[in-house]
Design goal:
About 40% of the residues lie in helices and about 15% in strands. With about 450 residues, the chain is an alpha/beta fold. The protein has a domain at about 75-110 and about 235-435: Rossmann fold (3-Layer(aba) Sandwich), CATH 3.40.50.1100. The strands form 4 sheets. It has a 7-stranded mixed beta sheet, sandwiched between helices. The longest helix is centred in the C-terminal third of the chain and has 20 residues, at about 380-400. It is globular and about 60 Å long.
Length: about 450
């Protein structure tokens, strides 16, 4: 009988995260302090992060050991399964082999706990009592709410207003874990009040929510800030995805020709792809594709330059692909992909041609999401559906060329909290936005 699921035992959870900084053939540009114009040092980050995460942010060691306490919590849901999409392949009538790593098997339904758990752990170890963070579609906020609950910390989540309204059950999930959730922009912070003065009906953005969370953390001694994407240590923690996938593909007797992930800030994309990019640096021939929405096409339309990571300009300058820190994208349903910039590492890899990027409209993405659900049974998150659409496009190209390609994509989360989006799609109410139009939209 053919195998559909490739499963690892708990003993095969990676014992260390993979740090791509050890293998980059070119240097990373430093973060720049906006006040001094000098490279950011550890002392500049101490008010926001525990020292262990600051060390990981700049480390060039190839392997960073995962603490036993983190591994114990990982065992609640890791290793995650790798699926061979036999039914989707048949529906597409393609010679391509399609595999997907499914990160929706944990309690919050996405890949985000992979970094939320170690971040909560390191903050607890340093004596911090409270975490302030932001969330777009709610996956990150849910993960951090769960992780802080496990380690006995308080949690404040600034949730992008458009997602707060679109996804009320995500908010409920965070509150079940004990978090306090605010629709951003709020009147609680100077950053939020400034936005509301200029636009009382602002739909919010990840950049705005980051500003509010950073301000919250910076003004309280008992609070640290926590970020779910973009920074080096966050991407590091997510590499458990790709490390497991490599072992599982070995079980299947395959190696990918194409690795695909949706890309907002870059965390799940990095998680699935960086362990394979290590092979690419060593001479392996494969393509790696980052997929983003046309309404917020950071890599495909942005500029590679220094910019703030937030709207209010409270973070360091980072060298990244950006649409501008004051860009507010349209209220598309893939809330986790509505970020103006991309992780500096991902941006550098794109600039050097190591990875590719494509952008799609949300209606075509949802068409592929429904196609996938009807074949494989899982309803994907709108963010993950971008990767699915790209995988289907590549499988159809393989069909046209008569080539047996091996395609791996990261199904970074399920869409069972996103049924409002699917309802809009099924009622033909979704609107497509291009970048120029998205910048002007309030929807």
């Amino acid at each position: 009988m053919r195998t559909t699921k490739f499963l690892l035992s708990e003993k095969e959870i990676p014992a260390a995260w993979y740090n791509i900084l050890a293998d980059l053939p070119y240097p990373m540009e430093p973060y720049i302090h906006p006040g001094t114009g000098q490279p950011v040092g550890p002392q500049d980050l101490i008010p926001l992060f525990p020292m262990e995460l600051i060390k990981q942010e700049v480390s060039t060691e190839r392997w960073i050991e995962i603490p036993d306490e983190v591994l114990e919590v990982y065992k609640l849901y890791r290793p995650s399964p790798l699926f061979r999409a036999h039914r989707l392949e048949k529906a597409l009538d393609t010679p391509a082999k399609i595999y997907y790593k499914y990160e929706g098997v944990n309690a919050t339904g996405s890949h985000k706990p992979n970094t939320a758990i170690p971040q909560a752990y390191y903050n607890k170890q340093e004596g911090i009592k409270r975490i302030a963070t932001e969330t777009g579609a709610g996956q990150w906020g849910s993960a951090m709410a769960m992780a802080t609950n496990f380690f006995g910390l308080e949690c404040a989540v600034y949730m992008v207003k458009v997602s707060y309204d679109q996804k009320p059950y995500r908010r409920s999930l965070m509150e079940v874990y004990g978090a306090k959730v605010y629709a951003s922009p709020t009147s609680n912070t100077q950053a939020g009040r400034k936005i509301l003065e200029a636009d009382p009906d602002s739909p919010g953005s990840l950049g705005i929510a980051i500003s509010e969370a950073v301000e919250d953390a910076a003004t309280r001694d008992d609070t640290h800030y926590s970020l779910g994407s973009v920074l080096n240590h966050v991407l590091l923690h997510q590499t458990v995805i790709g490390l497991e996938a490599k072992k599982q593909l070995e079980m299947a007797g395959d190696y990918p020709d194409i690795v695909i992930g949706c890309c907002g800030g870059g965390s799940n994309f990095a998680g699935v792809s960086f362990p394979f990019i290590q092979d690419k640096f060593a001479g392996k021939n494969l393509r790696v594709v980052a997929v983003e929405p046309k309404a917020c096409p950071t890599l495909t339309e942005g500029e590679f330059k220094y910019d703030f990571g937030d709207t209010a300009g409270m973070t360091p300058y980072m060298k990244m692909y950006t649409l501008g820190h004051d860009f507010v994208p349209a209220g598309i349903h893939a809330g986790g992909l509505r970020y103006h910039g991309d992780a500096p590492i991902v941006s550098l890899l794109f600039d050097k041609g190591v990875i590719e990027a494509v952008a799609y409209h949300q209606t075509s993405v949802f068409e592929s999401a429904v196609r996938f659900a009807r074949a494989e049974g899982i309803i994907p998150a709108p963010e993950s559906a971008h990767a699915i659409h790209c995988a289907i496009e590549e499988a159809l190209k393989a069909k046209e060329a008569g080539e047996e390609k091996v395609i791996l994509f990261n199904l970074s989360g399920h869409g069972y909290f996103d049924m409002t989006a699917y309802d809009s799609f099924l009622r033909n109410e979704l609107v497509d936005y291009d970048f120029a139009l998205a910048a002007c939209s309030k929807e």
